[in-house]
Design a protein that fits this description.
By secondary structure, this protein is of the alpha/beta class. The protein has helices at residues 14-25, 37-47, 63-71, 90-98, 111-147, 152-182, 190-220; strands at 6-10, 30-34, 51-55, 81-85, 103-106. The chain folds into two domains: 6-109, Response regulator (Rossmann fold); 116-220, Up-down Bundle (Methane Monooxygenase Hydroxylase, Chain G, domain 1), CATH 1.20.58. It has seven helices and five strands; from the N terminus they run βαβαβαβαβααα. The longest helix is centred in the middle third of the chain and has 37 residues, at 111-147.
């Protein structure tokens, strides 16, 4: 199985990198590697990875600092960074999230856990991107609607098309968000659950707006 998803592994220990690389390549992910935080900061803007697996304890710049610096760049503000670490104390977990991390995996890890967490975050970020595109499309639709108000027939035809084009993806987003929330195999953490809930609320809100616009049009058309 092949896909166009690129994952950057940042770890100074070749053995750790090799294990993660083999696990992910089996699923068709394209893998790039950086042996340090400094190198990661140089190559990440060039390859623009979809997700980053970051070791915490590295010589020079550690994983937390590398994550903070990456998040300063708007290109990576929504890129999931998952820490892979042997440190599992509460303070370490808090530091991981404070630095901008999306999740963490403790060593020694299982291949199934790595694949499940990576898959969940990739699906989540894709849902967010889709939702942002739909918001943009809806704003464009509203502007188009305002310009078409002088032509009742043209407006009705336009709304009919937009209803079909917006209902299907919006319902898909709402349904997928509910599936993520109900996942028992790989439950979301609190931060992820809040993000999914926001996506679901936004989707329902947009769907309601579309229905309201259609109802107003029916009234105007008699």
């Amino acid at each position: 199985m092949e896909n166009e998803t690129t994952i950057l592994i940042v770890d100074d220990i070749p053995g750790n990198v090799d294990v993660l690389r083999k696990t992910l390549e089996v699923e068709g992910y394209s893998i790039s590697m950086a042996p340090s935080g400094e190198v990661a900061l140089k190559i990440a803007p060039k390859i623009k990875p979809d997700l980053i697996l970051m070791d915490v304890m590295m010589p020079g710049m550690d994983g937390f600092e590398t994550c903070r610096k990456l998040k300063e760049d708007t290109v990576f503000e929504n890129t999931p960074i998952i820490f892979v670490t042997g440190k599992a104390e509460t303070e370490d977990v808090v530091d991981a999230f404070k630095s901008g991390g999306a999740d963490y995996i403790t060593k020694p890890f299982r291949d199934e856990e790595v694949l499940a967490r990576v898959g969940t975050h990739l699906k989540l970020i894709q849902t967010i991107k889709t939702n942002e595109c739909l918001v943009t499309d809806l704003k464009r639709a509203v502007l188009n609607l305002e310009s078409a108000q002088q032509e009742s027939l043209a407006k009705s035809q336009f709304l009919g098309r937009m209803s079909h084009e917006l209902h299907t993806p919006l319902n898909a987003i709402i349904g997928f968000s509910e599936l993520l929330s109900m996942s028992e195999r790989d439950p979301l953490n609190e931060e992820q659950s809040e993000s999914v809930d926001e996506i679901k609320k936004a989707g329902k809100h947009l769907l309601n707006l579309v229905d309201q616009v259609l109802e107003i049009n029916k009234i105007d058309s008699g």
